Amino acid sequence: MLRFSDKLAQAYALKEQFYSFMDAPDRKTAVHRLETFLDACDQLKLSEFKDCRKMLRNWRPYILNAFDIPLSNGFTEGCNNAIKTLKRLAFGFRNFHSFRARILLSLIPHPYS
After folding, report:
1. CB < 8 Å & 24+ apart, contacts of 72-77
2. DSSP 94
3. Are residues 26 and 54 in the same domain?
4. Fewest C-beta in 10 Å: which of 33, 59, 68, 91?
5. Cα gap 6→102, rounded to integer Å
6. Alpha-carbon separation of residue 102 from 76, 80, 87, 89, 95 (angstroms)
7. What is the mean pLDDT of each run of 10 residues along the chain (113 residues)?
8. Same domain, yes or no, for 38 and 78?
9. How far apart are CA 42 and CA 58, in angstroms?
C-alpha cells in the first residue's frame, strides 16, 4: 500500500518517527527526537498531522516531563473509566451501597483470565 501512495508513505514514516520519540530512554534523547519529528511535520505539511503538531508544541514541556519521572496516572484513569461505564450500565441501583459493592466486584481480577 505504501508504494501506491506517497502521502500514505509519508504519514507512515511520521507515525514511526513519533513512536521513536515515545520510546526515548531519557529526556535528552526525547528532546532531540521530538524536534526531529516536528521538523519532519513542518517539511511534509500533511494536514492530518497539523493538530498533533500544534498540540505537541503547546504541551512540549509537560510531555517532556514524563521522561524525567516515569510515573503515570493510567491505572487511576482506567478505574475512573470502568466506574463511569458501570454507572451507565447500573442505572436503577436503588442505593449507594449496592453501587459501591458492584464497583468493588468489577475491579477484582477474574481468577480464570
Report:
1. none
2. -
3. yes
4. 91
5. 51
6. 18, 14, 10, 11, 11
7. 85 94 94 95 90 94 90 87 82 78 79 68
8. no
9. 15
Residues 50 and 26 in one domain: yes
Q: Tell me which residue range forms the domain holding 85.
A: 74-107
Amino acid type, 77? E
Residues 45 and 86 in one domain: no
Residue 1 lies in a domain: no
Residues 6+ apart with CB under 8 A from 67: 24, 26, 27, 30
Assess if residue 36 is contained within a domain. yes
- 41: cell is 511535520
- Sequence letter at residue 86: L
The residue among 70, 8, 66 whose CA lies nearest residue 34 is 66
- The region that residue 92 occupies, defined by phi over 0 for left and psi between -120 and 50 for alpha, beta otherwise, is left
- This prediction has a pTM of 0.66
Query: What 3 state SS string does 28-81 have?
Result: HHHHHHHHHHHHHHHHHCCHHHHHHHHHHHHCHHHHHHCCCCCCCCHHHHHHHH
